[in-house]
Amino acid sequence: MINYGVVNLKVLVEELKKNDVKIVYTIENYSYGKFVYILDEEWNKIESWEQK
């Protein structure tokens, strides 16, 4: 799995949805950050997270 740190996860998810990117789950919140998972064209899972 590939993991990318981002500054604003909500904005990223909105942009990905506009481009028909497959979002696996909604944004998950934890005490140490927010996470979301997407799938690329080859069905590889990619994690993006926003640190708190």
Account of the 3D structure:
The protein is α+β, with helices and mostly antiparallel strands and 52 residues long. The protein has a single domain, classed as 2,3-Dihydroxybiphenyl 1,2-Dioxygenase, domain 1 (Roll), CATH 3.10.180.10. It is 19% helix and 44% strand. It is built from one helix and five strands. It has one helix at residues 9-18; strands at residues 2-5, 22-23, 28-30, 33-39, 45-51. Strand 4 (33-39) and strand 5 form a beta hairpin. It is globular. The mean pLDDT is 93.
What's the CATH topology name?
2,3-Dihydroxybiphenyl 1,2-Dioxygenase, domain 1
| Overall radius of gyration | 10 Å
Q: What's the main sheet like?
A: 5 strands, mixed
CATH architecture annotation? Roll
How many H/I helical runs? 1
Give the % helix.
Answer: 10-25%
Strand tally, please? 5
Encode the helix/strand succession as letters. Answer: EHEEEE
Write down the CATH class.
Answer: Alpha Beta
Could you report the average pLDDT, rounded to the nearest whole number?
A: 93
Task: Give a quick precis of the structure.
This protein has 52 residues and is α+β, with helices and mostly antiparallel strands. It is built from 1 helix and 5 strands, in the order βαββββ.
SSE blueprint and pairings:
Layout: E1 2-5, H1 9-18, E2 22-23, E3 28-30, E4 33-39, E5 45-51
Considering the chains and any ligands shown, give keywords for the structure.
alpha+beta, 2,3-Dihydroxybiphenyl 1,2-Dioxygenase, domain 1, five-stranded mixed sheet, 5 strands
